[in-house]
Amino acid sequence: MSTADRTRDPDEAAVIDGVRRWLAEWGDEVAGCDFDTAERRFADDVVGFGTRATVARGLRALRSDQWQHVWPAIDGFGFDVDEADVWVADDRSSAVIAAPWHSVGKTAQGTTFPRGGRATVVLTRADGRWVGRHTHFSLEPLDPGTYTGGAASGGGEGS
């Protein structure tokens, strides 16, 4: 069940629908490598945590250190918008999205593999529109049967 379906406040449901549209449209921009349009969704001082860039501070860094390396190297990107959880501040000034996403990765040799994960996005309202302030993307966890690292062996998260 979507977050919008769980709310009883029609105004909140409409706001949540708008946040979901924002997410879906951004997903289309990622899939189409439409960097310029995507940039207009974000604040200049956005902070992003990515699958390539550990921390990208500012829109220029987010584009150059994360987006331009990842978006052209994947196919079929999309957010699973219907599965996204959305929370909206009581005063409607901010929203947080937690959403799964999917794509197909490509190796240097040209083979493909499923590449999914999840994202957290923080939005604020500015001039009547939603503006991205923070993104955090992570890949799906490894299958525990294939994981051989661990804190004791020097492996673990981020290795």
Structure write-up:
By secondary structure, this protein is of the alpha+beta class. It has a single domain (3-141), classed as Nuclear Transport Factor 2, Chain: A (Roll), CATH 3.10.450. 27% of the residues lie in helices and 37% in strands. It has helices at 3-6, 10-31, 35-39, 59-70; strands at residues 42-49, 56-57, 74-79, 85-88, 94-106, 112-126, 129-139. Strands 1, 2, 3, 4, 5, 6 and 7 form a seven-stranded mixed beta sheet that branches. Strand 6 (112-126) and strand 7 (129-139) form a beta hairpin. The longest helix has 22 residues, at 10-31. The chain starts with a helix and ends in a 20-residue tail after the last strand. Residues 150-159 have low confidence and may be disordered.
Element-level helix/strand string: HHHEEHEEEEE
Distance between the termini: 35 Å
* Number of domain units: 1
Query: How many extended strands?
Result: 7
CATH class: Alpha Beta
Major sheet attributes: 7 strands, mixed
Evaluate the radius of gyration.
17 Å
Proportion of residues in extended strands: 35-45%
Mean pLDDT: 88
Short description:
Helices cover 27% and strands 37% of the residues. The protein has helices at 3-6, 10-31, 35-39, 59-70, and strands spanning 42-49, 56-57, 74-79, 85-88, 94-106, 112-126, 129-139. Strands 1, 2, 3, 4, 5, 6 and 7 form a 7-stranded mixed beta sheet that branches.
Supply database-style keywords:
159 residues, 7 strands, disordered C terminus
List the helices and strands and how they pair.
Elements: H1 3-6, H2 10-31, H3 35-39, E1 42-49, E2 56-57, H4 59-70, E3 74-79, E4 85-88, E5 94-106, E6 112-126, E7 129-139
Parallel strand pairs: 1-7
Antiparallel strand pairs: 1-2, 3-5, 4-5, 5-6, 6-7
